[in-house]
Amino acid sequence: QDNSFEQFIINYCNEKLQQIFIELTLKEEQEEYIREGIEWTHIEYFNNAIICDLIENNQTGILAMLDEECLRPGTVTDDTFLEKLNQVCATHQHFESRMSKCSRFLNDTSLPHSCFRIQHYAGKVMYQVEGFVDKNNDLLYRDLSQAMWKANHSLIKALFPEGNPAKINLKRPPTAGSQFKASVATLMKNLQTKNPNYIRWFKPNDKKAAHIFNEALVCHQIRYLGLLENVRVRRAGYAFRQPYEACLERYKMLCKQTWPHWRGPARAGVEVLFNELGIPEEEFSFGRSKIFIRNPRTLFKLEDLRKQRLEDLATLIGKIYRGWKCRTRFLLMKKCQIVIASWYRRYS
């Protein structure tokens, strides 16, 4: 119930993680269908980019205004920071404040004067502004960093690289909010380069007790995590997609016309392959550069056929090798027999 700067930073990171989940599972997937020319009905979903922008925008974001309050001369308090928020974010649909210029919240007696509320993707959260400025301006004095950098322990020395005398910077150290914002940006950049696998977990009850399942709480989590929209996209979309070249290379041994080499475009080879295997047309679609398979069972069928075909090919290779080996031995023995017989007839 009592949320301050720390919880605000944690929730900002959660918003960014939810944003990358939306980008990769809802937005990017639907855009891929459109790019590939697949017939698709757009599924609406809530994009929390507007909330991330409210927090991290370089001009009007909450973190930017907090840094501005920490750096500007004059009397700076948490109340002046809240006043600035009331001026800049008054009309934002996800920001609420008791003193906001937006008349919707002037009569909201549940919101104290020293608080503001953000409507996050998971619900509304109220923050106490007390301590925001001090916690954001939590600077480490330069002489302390230099003292820690001189420690003999390598770990302690590595934790304070700014204490290196060769890297002395007379500029004001970055605030806690700006450092965390940069760390989150680095994390997002790193995640964008990976192949993500998502595991969504639910809190079954608020008591942290076993064998208690609160259905209303779990349903609430399913809604705000965007899982309903994700399931709709998955059910209406395709479980598997692969470029034509890779698909043909993997499954070409299943068709006599494509094995061992296909002379022609990869898409035409995939069409011949799927027609030969008798896969129903509703189970796949041809995009501009990829083949889209709707149900996992179709993919499992292809993999089973490929596994069986590889076993057959291995048996064939082994049979041919054993035949070659026996024939080679037979020819050698026949040659030896002829030599022995010719010498025997000479001396008989």
Q: Explain this structure to me?
A:
Residues 1-307 form the Myosin motor domain. This is MYO1B protein. One of its GO terms (biological process) is endocytosis. With 348 residues, the chain is mainly alpha-helical. It has three domains: 1-138 and 174-237, Methane Monooxygenase Hydroxylase, Chain G, domain 1 (Up-down Bundle); 141-172, no CATH class; 242-323, Alpha-Beta Plaits, CATH 3.30.70.1590. It has 13 helices and six strands. The chain has a three-stranded antiparallel β-sheet, with helices on one face. The mean pLDDT is 84.
What topology emerges from the helices and strands here?
Elements: H1 5-35, H2 49-56, H3 62-71, H4 78-88, E1 95-97, E2 115-120, E3 123-128, H5 132-136, H6 142-149, H7 154-159, H8 176-192, H9 215-224, H10 227-236, E4 240-243, H11 244-251, H12 266-277, E5 284-286, E6 290-293, H13 296-347
Antiparallel strand pairs: 1-2, 2-3, 4-6, 5-6
Helix pairs in contact: 1-2, 1-8, 3-4, 11-12
Salient structural properties:
single chain; 348 residues; mainly alpha; Methane Monooxygenase Hydroxylase, Chain G, domain 1; Alpha-Beta Plaits; three-stranded antiparallel beta sheet; 13 helices; 54% helix; elongated; Kinesin_motor_dom_sf
